[in-house]
Amino acid sequence: MKNNKYCIGCGVKLQNNDSNYLGYVDDLAKDYCMRCYKLINYGVYESVDIDNIDYEKIFHEINDTNSLVLYVVDILNIPHDLKNIKKYIKNNWILVLNKRDLLPLSVKENKIKKYFDELKLGYLDIEIISTKKNINMDNLMNKINKYQNKDDIYVIGYTNAGKSSLINKIIKNYSDNKAQLTISPLPSTTIGSVKIPIREHLNIIDTPGLVDNENIINYVDSKMYKKLNGKREIKPKTFRIKKDESLIIDNVLRINYLSYNNNSFTFYIPNDFDIKRVSIKNDVLKDINKKIINVDDNCDLVINGLGFIKMVNKCRIEIFINEKISIFIRNNMI
Ligand SMILES: Nc1nc2c(ncn2[C@@H]2O[C@H](COP(=O)(O)OP(=O)(O)OP(=O)(O)O)[C@@H](O)[C@H]2O)c(=O)[nH]1
Ligand SMILES: [Mg+2]
Predict the structure, then answer these.
(1) 230 band by pLDDT with thresholds 50, 70 and 90
(2) What residues are paired with 251 via a beta bridge?
(3) How many Å separate Cα 313 from the centre of its chain?
(4) Which end of the chain is less enclosed by CB atoms within 10 A, N or C?
(5) Measured from the CA of 190, which atom of ligand 1 is nearest?
(6) 272's torsion region: left (phi>0), alpha (psi -120 to 50) or beta?
(7) Mutate which of 46, 160, 204 to test ligand 1's pocket (most atoms within 8 Å of Cβ)?
């Protein structure tokens, strides 16, 4: 008999043929696949290699353009291609910036909202939340109620943005449903779509995360995973920097400062990363890929997956980083 049962934690199709393959269960009567079972009960993470989830694939799953979409973004990892969403999305959507708890409390939410409004992405509304600390969840729920016009709403976004965590929070706060989606600090936890009934006339559909092959998370070991998934509020670290000084961030990034004017760099990266100032003559990390970048006044240098560096003055810098990890410049977000 053909099996058409899917894991209720991650949406993978269940199978009992091959224990080395995704979706394995020893007994098809079970609801969670082996990977989710181990994750939920023993905290054992098994990374999976999925690299073909892109916008087209996700929007293909949304079969009704009248359904409301929540696009979830990790506030420390704003996707470099956020502007592309306009090309793909036909639905009404809300931009949900998650992990507010990681940014210092002093950061003004209105300023962040203004930054995104000015990008003119075409969303109906925006909300800044923390699923972990339950921040602004009622505001988000009010917005869902305001804009929803079909029973089904979809939650989309890059892997690790916190989509499944968001839905679990909505279940906990606003539903009698006992369902629990699987969450983890590794990318591609959710493998297929999972539909969760919240109440009459409201179902929320979890979707697999978009995969970003240029994110630092793809190029680090398990020790670094832990550092990248910093759990505490970021304490920004400011460095006054001048010509021929270099900053070295753990063993992942080096910045050489080439300009004559002095400058101030504030790092918004997880607290466990070590930042050292050395002379430009020091050779640490100089053997990796190098890029020269000209930065304007009041810009952030974003290191995809790590966080960002707020820079004050116009300058010229030299960056050494694994060539597969993307870096880009944007106007100061905060
Ligand atoms: N600090 C903090 N961490 C969060 C928050 N929400 C989620 N996380 C963490 O982010 C990581 C990813 O969460 P998931 O809910 O699995 O993310 P996802 O978007 O469903 O990821 P995929 O299923 O891989 O697409 C986990 O380690 C969560 O604990 C939050 O509000 N604050
Ligand atoms: Mg998920």
Answers:
(1) confident
(2) none
(3) 28
(4) N
(5) 23
(6) alpha
(7) 160
Question: Whose structure tokens read 């995360």?
Answer: 209
Which residue bears the tokens 């760099």? 265
- Alpha carbon of 303 to ligand 1 centroid (Å): 19
Instruction: Give residue 180 CA to ligand 1 midpoint distance, Å.
Output: 14
CA atoms within 13 A on the CB side of 253: 25
Among protein residues, the one whose CA lies closest to atom 32 of ligand 1:
99
At 103-114, the pLDDT tens digits run 999 999 999 999
Is the model's pTM score more than 0.85?
Answer: yes
| Alpha-carbon span 82 to 51, nearest angstrom | 18
Instruction: Give the pLDDT of residue 2.
Output: 63
Mutate which of 165, 173, 181, 196 for ligand 1 pocket (most atoms within 8 A of beta carbon): 165
Backbone angles phi, psi at 117, to 5 degrees: -55, -40
Strand-pair category, 68-74 with 152-157: parallel
Pocket of ligand 1 (CB under 6 A): 98-99, 101-102, 130-132, 157, 159-165, 183-185, 187-190, 208-209, 229, 231
Contact between 310 and 265 (Cβ < 8 Å) = yes
